[in-house]
Amino acid sequence: MHTNKYFKEKRAGHRHRLRLFCFPYAGGNNSIYKDWDHEIDSDISIVTIHLKGRMERMGEEPINNMNLLVDELFENIKGFLNEPFAFFGHSLGGLVAFALLKKIEKETDRRAQAIIVSASKAPHVYALNKINDYSDEHLTQKIKNYGNTPDYVLESAELMELILPTLRADYMVLDSYDNCEDGKLTSPAIIFNCEDDVAKEVSLQWQECFENECQYSTFEEGHFFINAQREKVISEVNKVLK
Predict the structure, then answer these.
(1) Under a CB-based contact definition with an 8 Å cutoff, are residues 227 and 36 in contact?
(2) Side-by-side strand order, sheet with 44-49
(3) In a domain, 1, yes or no
(4) Most Cβ neighbours (<10 Å): which of 65, 89, 151, 236?
């Protein structure tokens, strides 16, 4: 199996040693990783995640609960777990990747070669700073503060009407998951972080969720260094997945 409604393998049919599943940040979609297959090592096959409420699935209601989202992802990823795999998730995507891998480790004998949590905080850290306010005004201010959304989008009522429902659902997913219950993961973990965005000691609290010592790599350019430092991020992904 190389494609279904949630997972699409960009190099399906090509020989590879590893599948890399790439999870988007809140409000994001699979286009974040559209050019990665040009720079990722040739023996790594990128698999993008296609969530409800965005891109070709815009007409579907986005899921707003982590457990429900993970259950759907788990049912649809099973056919891809016959080969070695790794996860990469940025911001909310890191938390979704972690929650899904926890279910995979609990319910199967499969383990990831690595999980890379990028610009993300451990679930018990997020639990201390839940959003709780999902109003249009609050969400709009949050994305303004991050500085990743062009002014013409923020100033367009029509475009914001398309963006906000998905963003609201994603933040509700974030708020609905808050612990490392059921033990620590055994898969190796790597933390990507910008210390201007998240303090190192906060980022390293991911260690509480994994049995083995986490690797740690730093980047610049704020929360969305995945875009601002794309080449460096991909280079580091290639390095840690060797």
Answers:
(1) no
(2) 7-9, 44-49, 18-23, 85-90, 114-118, 189-193, 215-218
(3) no
(4) 89
Residues 208 and 184: their CA atoms lie apart, in Å, by 7
Reference 61, options 154, 170, 199; nearest CA is 170
Q: What is the CA radius of gyration of the chain?
A: 17
Q: Are 197 and 91 in contact (CB under 8 A)?
A: no
pLDDT digits 0-9 by tens, 184-196: 999 999 999 999 9
The answer to the question of residue 108 being in a domain is yes
Prediction pTM value: 0.93
Instruction: Look at the alpha carbons of 229, 139, 156, 31 in this order and tell me if their dihedral is positive or negative.
Output: positive
Instruction: Supply the CATH number for residue 48's domain.
Output: 3.40.50.1820
- Expressed as residue numbers, the domain containing 177 is 7-240
Give the tens place of pLDDT for each residue, 11-26.
Answer: 766 789 999 999 999 9
Number of domains in the chain: 1
Q: What is the pLDDT of residues 42-77, one digit of tens each?
A: 999 999 999 999 999 989 999 999 999 999 999 999
Sign, Cα dihedral of 101, 235, 46, 18 = negative
Sequence letter at residue 11: R
Residue 148, Cβ density class (10 Å: 0-12 exposed, 13-18 middle, ≥19 buried): middle
Tell the residue number behind the tokens 């979609």, with chain if given.
29
Q: Is residue 189 part of a domain?
A: yes
Q: How confident is the model at residue 179 (pLDDT cuts 50, 70, 90)?
A: low
